[in-house]
Specification:
Elements lengths: L8 E10 L2 E11 L4 E5 L6 H7 L10 E9 L2 E2 L7 H7 E4 L10 H12 L4 H14 L3 H4 L12 H14 L4 E5 L7 H14 L4 E5 L3 H7 L2 E6 L2 E7 H6 L4 H7 L5
Parallel strand pairs: 3-8, 3-9, 6-7, 7-8
Antiparallel strand pairs: 1-2, 1-4, 4-5, 9-10
Length: about 260
């Protein structure tokens, strides 16, 4: 008897309104664990809005109303009473521009640990080292941990922000165009990091760069005007999509 496929994230009938404007319209998809899912589509199609639903960042915007269900590990995160601090520890987010704190490298990575855990100094130091190692920064920065994070290059700052998330041991990493502020060489290094991280994390990445989506993701979701047009394995979406709208966007005839 074969085991049932387990999904890390299950989205059902997701609708979101900014006041009277409906930004998401009945979105439904299921994301398997330890995969990279790319979310693509033209500007204003609802990509980032969808991503922010997965850790309820849209709650911070006045006048937002959300309907439907989002199950993470079979728990509906949209239910009343959800612990949002715990949710955002479990589902971390990387933004378009790196946002390190104006603190030392060490304190940046240790920040979440001190917030969420009552760890000893030794445990924090060990976790900081592991987190910086995971994002490929330990060897180059281990002798300058007291230096300001703001002195790093943009690419290093983005890696540091990922290390800050990794330190608190999330299950899911959300990435909202994480390479949009980076040059091609730095972008490639972040893409390589994404490949390494998916061994331990479920990753959802919004990108305007279709070549990037094709390179880094296992599955791709194409959004248009707040609707999920098509979702499936990246190779199929980019070679033989089911919907003409998807093909027109992928081939550059639209968007």
């Amino acid at each position: 008897m074969t085991e049932a496929v387990q999904f890390k994230i299950e989205v059902e009938g997701l609708c979101l309104y900014y006041g009277s404007f409906q930004a998401l319209k009945g979105v439904g998809l299921k994301i398997k664990p330890d995969r990279v899912t790319a979310v693509i589509g033209p500007s204003g199609c609802g990509k980032s809005t969808f991503l922010r639903c997965l850790n309820r960042m849209n709650d911070l915007i006045e006048g937002v109303k959300v309907e439907g269900r989002i199950l993470i590990d079979s728990e509906n995160i949209l239910r009343t009473g959800t612990d949002l601090i715990h949710l955002r520890k479990k589902v971390g987010m990387v933004f378009q521009r790196p946002n390190p704190f104006p603190l030392s490298l060490f304190e940046n990575v240790a920040f979440g640990l001190k917030l969420h855990h009552s760890s000893s100094r030794g445990e924090i130091e060990e976790r900081v080292e592991k987190s910086l190692t995971a994002v490929g920064l330990w060897e180059e920065l281990k002798d300058s941990l007291k230096s300001s994070a703001l002195a790093l290059s943009l690419e290093q700052q983005q890696r540091l922000c990922i290390a800050r998330l990794v330190a608190v041991k999330p299950d899911v990493l959300l990435m909202d165009e994480p390479c949009s502020a980076l040059d091609p060489v730095a972008t490639l290094r972040i893409e390589e990091l994404i490949h390494e991280l998916k061994r331990d994390y479920t990753i959802v990445i919004v990108t305007h760069n279709m070549q990037q989506a094709a390179r880094v993701s296992d599955e791709t979701a194409y959004f248009y005007l707040g609707e999920l047009v098509e979702f499936g394995p990246t190779e199929r979406i980019f070679t033989t999509p089911d919907k003409k709208e998807t093909e027109d966007y992928i081939t550059g005839r639209f968007g």
